[in-house]
């Protein structure tokens, strides 16, 4: 994944002058699961209809200029590889932080499924 083109698309928007903050979440494959087991990799699946709905909802929040997301799906990822990039641009810190957090949570709980590989 390359964050730079995503960021450039956002900055090229005619309404970007209303942005005072851009936050980027870059999720990577961690070497251990939440329960402490050693992970060798993972695979992510995406519900694209649900993703479109979540992103559309996020973009409609007050003060939000843009929301971009890219998810590495349907391929085996190794420890350290990028899983997801989520970028939120908006007017003020409170709006951007809230939307990034809520959108990330929605994607992780309702959009993606993951299979961890243990070794």
Describe the structure in your own words.
With 119 residues, the chain is an alpha+beta fold. It has a single domain, classed as Alpha-Beta Complex (Aldehyde Oxidoreductase, domain 3), CATH 3.90.1170.40. Helix content is 34%, strand content 35%. The protein has three helices and six strands. The protein has helices spanning 3-11, 48-59, 93-111; strands at 21-28, 39-46, 64-71, 77-78, 82-90, 112-118. The strands form two sheets. A three-stranded antiparallel sheet has the order 1-5-3, sandwiched between helices. It has a three-stranded antiparallel sheet with strand order 4-2-6.
In short:
With 119 residues, this protein is an alpha+beta fold. The protein has helices spanning 3-11, 48-59, 93-111, and strands at 21-28, 39-46, 64-71, 77-78, 82-90, 112-118. The two termini are 25 Å apart.
Shape: elongated
**Order of the strands making up the biggest sheet:** 1-5-3
Helix coverage percent of residues?
25-40%
Q: How would you sum up the major sheet?
A: 3 strands, antiparallel
List keywords for this structure.
alpha+beta, Aldehyde Oxidoreductase, domain 3, three-stranded antiparallel beta sheet, elongated
Layout: helices, strands, pairs:
Elements: H1 3-11, E1 21-28, E2 39-46, H2 48-59, E3 64-71, E4 77-78, E5 82-90, H3 93-111, E6 112-118
Antiparallel strand pairs: 1-5, 2-4, 2-6, 3-5
Helix pairs in contact: 2-3
């Amino acid at each position: 994944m390359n964050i730079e083109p995503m960021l450039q698309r956002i900055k090229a928007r005619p309404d970007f002058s209303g942005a005072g903050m851009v936050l980027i979440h870059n999720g990577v494959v961690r070497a251990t699961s939440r329960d402490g087991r050693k992970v060798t990799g993972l695979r992510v699946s995406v519900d694209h209809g649900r993703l479109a709905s979540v992103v559309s909802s996020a973009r409609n929040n007050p003060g939000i200029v843009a929301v971009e997301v890219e998810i590495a799906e349907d391929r085996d990822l190794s420890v350290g590889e990028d899983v997801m990039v989520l970028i939120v641009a908006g007017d003020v810190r409170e709006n951007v932080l809230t939307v990034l957090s809520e959108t990330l949570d929605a994607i992780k709980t309702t959009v993606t499924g993951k299979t961890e590989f243990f070794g």
